[in-house]
Amino acid sequence: MLKLLNPIFTELWIEHMKLEPYQIMWDHFYKNINNTIQNVVIPKGIFEFKDNINNITNNPDSLRNPYEYFLYLLHRHLTKHPFHWKKLQGRIYSRLPEQKVREFNDNEVLEKLNGILGILSKDRQNMEFIWILHINMVITAISQNQDVSTISITLRKLVQRASENRDNFYLIKHYLQGLSFIFNNTVTLDVNQNCLLNSWMTSYMVACSHTDLCTLLQLLIDVLKKAESVGKWSHFRPIYLDFVIPTLKQIAVTNNVGQIGKLAGLISMNIPELNSSLLPYFCNETIDINVTNEFLTTILENIHIASITVQQHNILISAWCRISLLCSDTISDDLSQKIFSLPAIRNVVLIENVDEPFVDFIKALNKQINQTNLFRLKELCEACFGNIDKWIVPHLTASKLDSQVLYLYTKMSLLFLYCAPLLYQKSKSVCLLNRLITVLLLPTDVLTGKSPPGNILHAVEKTWHLFFKGIYKLDHISDPYIDRTLRDLIIRYVPHFSTVNSPIINILDNNDIITYALEKITNNFLLHSARSSEENTFKAIKTIQNILQISVDLERIRTIIKKVLPGIFDVIIFNSQKSAALDVVKFITSAEWYNYVHDDVRNSIQNVTAKHLAFNTNNYFQLVSILQKYMPEDVRASLPQIKEQITHVERMRGVGFDNTLRQALKRIEDTC
What we know:
Layout: H1 2-12, H2 20-31, H3 33-37, H4 46-58, H5 66-80, H6 85-95, H7 98-101, H8 109-118, H9 122-125, H10 128-143, H11 148-151, H12 153-162, H13 169-185, H14 200-207, H15 210-229, H16 233-251, H17 258-270, H18 275-282, H19 289-302, H20 310-326, H21 333-340, H22 343-346, H23 357-367, H24 374-385, H25 388-392, H26 402-423, H27 432-440, H28 444-447, H29 454-472, H30 480-491, H31 511-526, H32 534-550, H33 554-574, H34 578-590, H35 598-612, H36 617-630, H37 632-653, H38 659-671
Helix pairs in contact: 1-5, 2-6, 4-5, 8-10, 10-13, 13-15, 14-16, 15-16, 15-17, 16-17, 17-18, 17-19, 19-20, 23-26, 26-29, 29-30, 30-31, 31-32, 31-33, 32-33, 32-34, 33-34, 33-35, 33-36, 35-36, 35-37, 36-37, 36-38, 37-38
Protein name: S-phase genomic integrity recombination mediator, C-terminal
InterPro entries: MMS22-like, MMS22L_C
Domain MMS22-like C-terminal: 335-669
């Protein structure tokens, strides 16, 4: 029916329309109020509520019931005849029961509605729809350029109360949605919008969910930028100083939300007197790296390098190193370039490329080791990496992802490879290098024979050769600590490494290093004096066999034979892993390069003869008997040296003829 009357009311009679038809319609709807509102759909959010209002005022085709259509017609009429509102207002207010409105007055409509909402019970005030009404009243007031400090009093009290009870945090989501609309859709901030942000934020930020925290932080970032751009920062400054910064400092320790750092950085830029305290705080090792990264990025995007004090250089450099080391694909090249332009770095090293900033930086340090004052380089390393052992400890747990631990070990192994001489100070009982070795490679559990957690062992396997090569650059000959460390890296990890793809394979390209490593393996796992467990001896033998199987360089093969074959012979003589040792002998004698290593094999036979003939006679001749089966030519060629050694033993024993030795020799000669 109302749709049929629409053309008459809004077109034909619009200029001379009287109020009486609307008063009659209001009386009708009021008398049938229960039927009128029973089909009303309560909006679920601020924007749905605004859409409903917009439809009622501008889109009659979308209206769902006669009452909404009545409101549409009334809006059209009052827009044309605003002076009629006072008459209809009196009629509406006089018909509302007193107990529903209590102290209702004649202030503006927003204030009246605010008064009604303010006298509701607490349970009703916590209804989502009531919050939506409050928020839309504030939005409406702002759209009419009205001061919101009064109209929002009840709403602000509700928000404060809700922030103290996590069960009511879902209501604050509506409030944040409204604030986002307010600050993003108003050109100016002239109606005291700053009063909408206050102490409620403190308890809310501390206890809300990750998603809700991100929402609030982004809102605060947008508000700060908006206030700065429209010249109203002074109105918001106390809020950020009193409520935001203290809370950011609190939650930065336990949260990894990067927006915390970004917001702190923006505040620091807009409140310069805070910079000296915020910079060291948000770059501290106790702060999550995502937070520090955003803080650092924001700071360096907004200030010139020249304005950074000398005392702050080391703080920035250390923070950059921590981020680069602990977080993959996070730090930007622009940020790295700005760090590299700091005098503390620029005056010491030249960094030509920034494809991989952290790696390029440590490579640049390496290039300067023999060209620059070593003291200055070590000073820079201390500034960059002085607390690195503290940074990495929380990340070396069994719960960390394999990829995260491997990333960390890769970066650290490259640091060792290129900068070990800068990390080590022989004159100090405890320096950065030995602290890092203890944390990364040789903790107490590993030194006592326990295997590290799977993710850490996997990372060590992938990077062991880089650590080893880096430490080997130091003076292992005259420095017992370095020699002991290198030995421990071998003997503590060979039992835990795979025998098929052992990391030792990756040091075969350096003859000095592989010679050193094979000596340690032989001395600690193969020789009779090593007193190695059978299991560890077996692993060492299989590792050596695998190394021989993949080796193609003849000189490298000869080096391996020289270093390990005497130990293999010892295993055959004394150890229950004789079968595994014989597998190595069989492989050597069947290899296509066997003819090139006869001299090395014969030297090994002569060495074991000199070592064991006198004191382990029976075991020795059992070995020779076995070797005759696999390498008869080498045994035959070694007979003169064996005879000579027998004569030497007889002389040492003070006898001219030892029947046991001579009989054993005769059996060998007869077999050959």
